[in-house]
From TrEMBL:
Full protein name: ABC transporter ATP-binding protein
InterPro entries: AAA+_ATPase (IPR003593), ABC_transporter-like_ATP-bd (IPR003439), ABC_transporter-like_CS (IPR017871), ABC_transporter_ATP-bind (IPR050166), P-loop_NTPase (IPR027417)
ABC transporter domain segment(s): 11-240
Top-level taxon of the source organism: Bacteria
Matches recorded under Pfam families: ABC_tran (PF00005)
Keyword Transport among UniProt keywords: yes
Keywords assigned by UniProt, alphabetized: ATP-binding, Nucleotide-binding, Transport
Lineage, highest ranks first: Bacteria, Bacillati, Bacillota, Bacilli, Lactobacillales
């Protein structure tokens, strides 16, 4: 008899139908996918195809109308610190310092104060914010605020981090830096990442798996397994070499999402 290990995340025939004033809206239909521990999944697709809906199911913010979503064989029924979420405009607490924002979740969970101090310092160092730990968040640039949001999630040592267009509001250079930081943290922390983006290059250079969705109804049309992110990890300047295969895949994705 072979005993198969349960998938880290098992999305099993998941459909989500919302009630709206105009009647039921099928946001996603029969999505069936597994995520392995340590995967970096990037999700692309046209606006309204159900990307955020899928993220909310995995995060435990909403329940599927049909099907189930499980983490390590346990049904996901509510949000948990084990699955940290970062949004594009993650709101930080303006009355707290950078450090207090980051410590907040651990304090709520009554983690031991020495551990809180250690973890907070270490994550502040990793995201390059140790020098502004006592500043208020409104004194920081947009990129720095987003680093606080990422740090605030990672300090909990979640098993998985879910990001909904986390870098969409950042300028191109800051965005590149944040992509590099996220890739490095993924490797260092051996965490699992699920990241939604509209940027095909971002998806192709970060994810080891890229899911491309189509809409009406929202489905995963195609998956690509890529190694550009590993290239970037080993490249001295953290870049990937854009080869013919890269361009072919990029064009295929553009065709699927109808851009
Ligand atoms: N709470 C809700 N009530 C009713 N309909 C909703 C709700 N949330 C989302 N929808 C609808 O479900 C569909 C999918 O929405 P979703 O936000 O998941 O798309 P998305 O792919 O994240 O889009 P975008 O790229 O614009 O963020 C859309 O048609 C949207 O209008
Ligand atoms: Mg969305």
């Amino acid at each position: 008899m072979t005993i198969t290990k349960p998938a880290f995340i098992d999305i099993n025939q998941v459909s989500v139908v919302y009630d709206s004033k105009k009647g039921p809206v099928t946001a996603i239909e029969q999505i069936d996918k597994q995520i392995n521990q340590g995967d970096f999944i990037c999700v692309l697709g046209p606006s309204g195809c159900g990307k955020s809906t899928l993220l909310k199911v995995i995060a435990g913010f909403i329940q599927p109308t049909k099907g189930t979503c499980q983490m390590e064989d346990k049904l996901i029924t509510q949000p948990s610190w084990e699955r940290g979420v970062v949004f594009q405009d993650s709101t930080l607490y303006p009355w707290m310092s950078v450090q207090e924002n980051i410590e907040y979740g651990l304090k709520m969970r009554q983690v031991n104060p020495t551990m809180i101090k250690e973890r907070t310092e270490s994550i502040l160092e990793q995201v390059g914010l140790l020098h502004v730990k006592d500043a208020h968040t409104f004194e920081l640039s947009g990129g720095m605020q987003q680093r606080v949001a990422v740090a605030r999630t990672l300090v909990n040592k979640p098993k998985m981090i879910l990001m909904d267009e986390p870098f969409g509001a950042l300028d191109a250079l800051t965005r590149l830096n944040m992509q590099g930081l996220t890739r490095d943290l993924w490797q260092e922390e051996k965490t699992t990442v699920f990241l939604i983006t509209h940027d095909i290059d971002e998806a192709m250079t970060l994810g080891n798996r890229v899911w491309v969705m189509s809409k009406n109804p929202g489905k995963i049309e195609k998956e690509y397994q890529l190694d550009y992110t590993y290239q970037a990890l080993t490249d001295e300047r953290h870049r990937v070499s854009v080869d013919d295969k890269y361009l072919t895949i990029k064009n295929e994705i553009l065709d699927i999402i109808g851009a």
